[in-house]
Amino acid sequence: MDLVCVTVQQKLLPVSLRLLSIRRHYARLAEVGRLETPKAEGKYDTGQLILHRVFGYRGVVLFPWLARVYDRDLPQHREGDEETNAGVGKEVRGRTHTFYQVLIDQRDCPYIRAQTEAVTFLGNQDSSRSLYAIPGLDYVAHEDIFPYVSAEKAPLHHELFDKFLGPNPNRGVLHLIPVNKPDSRLLVVDFLDPPFVAQDTLKAWQNKNHPWLELSDVHKETTENIRVTVIPFYMGCKESHASSVYWWRYCIRLENLGSLSVQLRERHWRIFSLSGTLETVRGRGVVGQEPALTKTLPAFQYSSHVSLQAPSGHMWGTFRMEREDGYTFDCRIPPFSLESKAEGGPATPPETA
Length: 353
Known about the structure:
The protein is mainly beta. Helix content is about 5%, strand content about 50%. It has 3 helices and 23 strands. It has helices at about 160-165, 200-210, 210-215; strands at about 5, 15-25, 25-35, 50, 60-70, 95-105, 120, 130-135, 135-140, 145-150, 165, 170-180, 185-190, 195-200, 215-225, 225-240, 245-255, 260-275, 280-285, 290-295, 300-310, 310-325, 330-340. The strands form 5 sheets. Strands 1, 2, 3, 4, 5, 6, 9, 10, 15, 16, 17 and 21 form a 12-stranded mixed β-sheet that branches. Strands 18, 19, 20, 22 and 23 form a 5-stranded antiparallel β-sheet that branches. A two-stranded antiparallel sheet has the order 7-8. One of its GO terms (biological process) is error-free translesion synthesis.
């Protein structure tokens, strides 16, 4: 089934969810499940089927991450907030927030305005630029999740789904409820969420690959109704007899919160290394594209990489944006730190099962 968009109505939860699919010159609606009420409090469990609020894809929760979110749009100095680390953004206080590692349904990947191979790691080749991807993984904020129950026999298509998750053996719970008639009982089956639970392979994979997957800091800032979210990840260090090269990947999401369409035209980065160097990078678009953020497609997400010959540094910059009325402006990219970890870099690539 070719997924184009997802229709979700929060006010009618729970309702049947239908996905619009198109085959050449006609469209049809196919029912894939029933929406559930999103959780205002608490966490979603491993095995919960989800729809992404912004990108519309189907997915399943693997495990949660607790991250510190540094949001420059929120009032600062609230009681109970955490102090940020010294350095970039030190005037911004971090608030703990839940994110989830999610497997993406491969049927939806061609239609997502986000890179579906955004989780990368260093290989063990001699070249310091040997990067490998784990396809179909994403990091999703709690508020971006719509939980649902699938009506399909195979609710999620991904090569790791059956390796990581299995049916919940306790999902169907039987209850005998008395009714008005003598010696009569009503048999009721309660279906507990989630429908799937973690296999031992998922737990082992999470523990082994924790350094490559860990999410710790998230940075946000809004300019002219364009919200930029940055999540940096330390990838490891490539060492040689002459030098050490430290690698990070960073995931960036742009979201148009306004009513006018906006297009990204240029990027301008400043990259500072603890070794004392300051690099400037300018160019057209991002990852070979100049994405438009419209009312129907308001968001775009991509990942990129940076390397330094020092164990830490920081980055900041701007995106040059052009609005549909011709107005251009620089959208700020929130400053974020590049910090290495004591564990060092990977000696071998992480396993996928």
